[in-house]
Specification:
Low-confidence stretches: none
CATH class: Alpha Beta
Number of helices: 8
Number of domains: 1
Order of helices and strands: HEHEHEHEHHHH
Strand content: 5-15%
Structural class: alpha/beta
Radius of gyration: 20 Å
Largest sheet: 4 strands, parallel
Strand order of the largest sheet: 2-1-3-4
Shape: globular
């Protein structure tokens, strides 16, 4: 029941999402019919950000990468997999970047309210599954705290996926970079150099790194104790990590791996049924 639309249409509002998989291009009657015919019909929303990405990447980096990879993933799905992309939030919780001009941010409370209202609208439309696709690391904590509440309030099955955590390609990024980089370093810069090289200014690139070995028992990333940080704690330019080893070639490999894995996950979510709960057998 996918809408019969050509691969390109006059408006560009859908971005890289295949037009026939863009929720907003359907009429209300068509959405109603999809929900009634297909109990597995799934909506997915990219929760991005508009925030500083150092001197060499645009403010829209997180939203752009999220929508590009979501579009590539949806294009891989067969027609019998009914997954539709909602318009993205564009804005996220970017309070850690508030010291840098250009950053536009929700508070965590505002982001939760926005997603609650969108989720309720999707549920009223008859869809039973909603995927929250995060393309900005600063949104992860808010989604972790909230997505179960959304399940309770809407009675939908609610899933979350963080793009930064899927489709990893071992050996593509140096270990010392992977250990500390979290913003505008090798990974994000490589993907942007592949996706939209026109928006990347490598002549201005200036990343900042720190030595995790000097931390005694705690760090900013990945140890038993993690210290709260804002971007200006770790970088003078806003770039946390080293963008200089980046390349469009690496970015292409990263993007293809993430899009392929995202397509697998979206299809698995669509085809999944509710778990059967059985009494555990007694031993002996």
């Amino acid at each position: 029941m996918l809408k019969d639309l050509p691969p390109t249409i006059g408006t560009g509002i859908h971005g890289s999402i295949p037009p026939r998989r863009y929720w907003a291009y359907y009429t209300w009657q068509e959405i109603d019919a999809i929900a009634k015919k297909d109990p597995n019909a799934t909506a997915v929303i990219n929760i991005g950000a508009i925030e500083q990405h150092g001197p060499h990447l645009p403010l829209v980096t997180d939203t752009l990468v999220g929508m590009e990879l979501l579009g590539h993933a949806l294009a891989r799905l067969s027609d019998d997999v009914m997954v539709l992309a909602l318009p993205p939030t564009n804005f996220g919780k970017s309070t850690e970047h508030h010291d840098f001009p250009g950053t536009l941010t929700f508070s965590g409370e505002t982001l939760r309210m926005v997603l609650r209202d969108i989720g309720a609208s999707v549920a009223r439309s008859g869809f039973k599954k909603l995927v929250l696709l995060g393309s900005h690391g600063g949104n992860v904590g808010t989604l972790d705290d909230f997505f179960r509440d959304l399940r309770i309030e809407t009675d939908m099955r609610v899933f979350k996926i963080f793009l930064g955590g899927i489709g990893q390609v071992p050996g593509l990024v140096a270990p010392h970079e992977a250990a500390i980089a979290m913003h505008s370093g090798d990974v994000e810069t490589s993907m942007m150099r592949h996706l939209t090289p026109e928006l990347v200014h490598m002549d201005r690139a200036e990343g900042w790194v720190f030595d995790p070995a000097k931390d005694i028992g705690y760090s900013f990333k990945g140890n038993d104790v993690i210290e709260a940080w804002i971007a200006s704690d770790l970088s003078r330019t806003g770039a946390i990590g080293n963008p200089h080893p980046s390349s469009a070639e690496k970015g292409k490999i990263m993007c293809e791996a993430k899009a392929a894995r995202l397509a697998e996950l979206l299809e698995a979510i669509y085809r999944s049924s509710r778990r059967e709960i059985r009494v555990a057998p007694k031993e002996g």
